[in-house]
Design goal:
This protein is of the alpha/beta class. The chain has helices at 3-6, 20-30, 49-57, 68-71, 85-95, 115-136; strands at residues 13-14, 34-39, 42-48, 73-74, 79-80, 99-103, 109-114.
């Protein structure tokens, strides 16, 4: 299984000049916790709900004046769509992020994968494995 099998392709994106208010509305309306900031189709940053809380709310900043560029984590950790799940697990472990943009071979945004997506997939696999093992146990 590769990251392309697991990723979501309906990524919420914005440009670097998008206001914090618009980012927050997008997150609320789309039911997501992050917005990938793109320039020329490539992910150049990511803004999370936590970034909004710490960079706008906690600072009592004007959400119409703060932009994605002010709040984003620049140069986000990305993973190639062709990477395997083990590579993805290693990257999540070493980078200590919860959301990772997925890039195509040319570096453009192809999707996003979250730690929650990975966790759900692994739990499903564990469940299937347990059923296979249980089916092979002889009755007592």
């Amino acid at each position: 299984m590769t990251v392309s099998d697991l990723m979501r392709t309906d990524v919420v994106t914005a440009g670097p000049d998008t206001t914090a208010s618009d980012l927050g509305r997008d997150m609320r309306d789309e039911g997501v916790g992050s917005v990938v900031i793109v320039e020329d189709g490539r992910p150049t940053g990511i803004v999370t709900d936590r970034d909004l809380a710490t960079g706008v709310v906690a600072e009592s900043a004007d959400p119409e004046r703060r932009t994605a560029r002010d709040l984003m984590t620049p140069d986000p950790v990305t993973v190639p769509a062709t990477a395997g799940v083990f590579e993805l697990c290693d990257e999540f472990g070493s980078s200590r992020v919860r959301r990772m943009p997925v890039v195509a071979d040319d570096g453009t945004l192809a999707g996003i994968v979250t730690l929650d997506d990975l966790h759900v997939m692994l739990v499903d696999e564990q469940h299937d494995l347990a059923r296979a093992v249980q089916a092979s146990i002889p009755p007592y």
